[in-house]
């Protein structure tokens, strides 16, 4: 299931400002900081994130044309805010949702599989040696 673009625009303007303060602290949620590929502006996008062995898998709910996804794939600095930590991320890869499922740690894997975003997932690797500094 892909969420309609109109819903994405609503979330960007109404829901995301509130969600950004909550998502870093809630299970399976986080805030991804990324740089605009054209503007150079820093953005913070609340997303569904699932821990993997060496990083995170992020479900893509609004399709492959989402601005946040294009920004991350353009290679600018990307930081995940999760549980009070700033975790620098690298090596973005878009894969099918089913392909990323075995990478997700066992505890949140069931939630990952039943969540209705089926199009794809973004897999990011935590930059070694950073250990989630502030």
Helix content: 25-40%
The 3D shape can be described as: globular
| Total beta-strand segments | 6
Highest CATH level, the class: Mainly Beta
Number of helices: 4
Low-pLDDT windows of residues: none
Strand order of the largest sheet: 1-2-3-6-5-4
What is the residue-averaged pLDDT?
86
Percent strand: 25-35%
Main β-sheet, in a few words? 6 strands, antiparallel, barrel
The CATH architecture assignment turns out to be Roll
Oligomer: single chain
GO molecular function: oxidoreductase activity
InterPro entries: F420H2_quin_Rdtase, Split_barrel_FMN-bd
Protein name: Nitroreductase family deazaflavin-dependent oxidoreductase
Give the gist of this structure.
28% of the residues lie in helices and 34% in strands. The termini are far apart. It has 134 residues and is α+β, with helices and mostly antiparallel strands.
Q: Can you characterise this structure?
A:
By secondary structure, the chain is α+β, with helices and mostly antiparallel strands. It has one domain (28-126): Pnp Oxidase, Chain A (Roll). The chain contains 4 helices and 6 strands. It has helices at residues 5-22, 67-73, 97-100, 106-114, and strands at residues 29-35, 42-51, 55-60, 78-82, 85-95, 120-126. A 6-stranded antiparallel barrel has the order 1-2-3-6-5-4. It is globular, with a radius of gyration of 14 Å. It starts with a helix and ends in an 8-residue tail after the last strand. This is Nitroreductase family deazaflavin-dependent oxidoreductase. One of its GO terms (molecular function) is oxidoreductase activity. It holds the Pfam family F420H2_quin_red. It comes from Mycobacterium simiae.
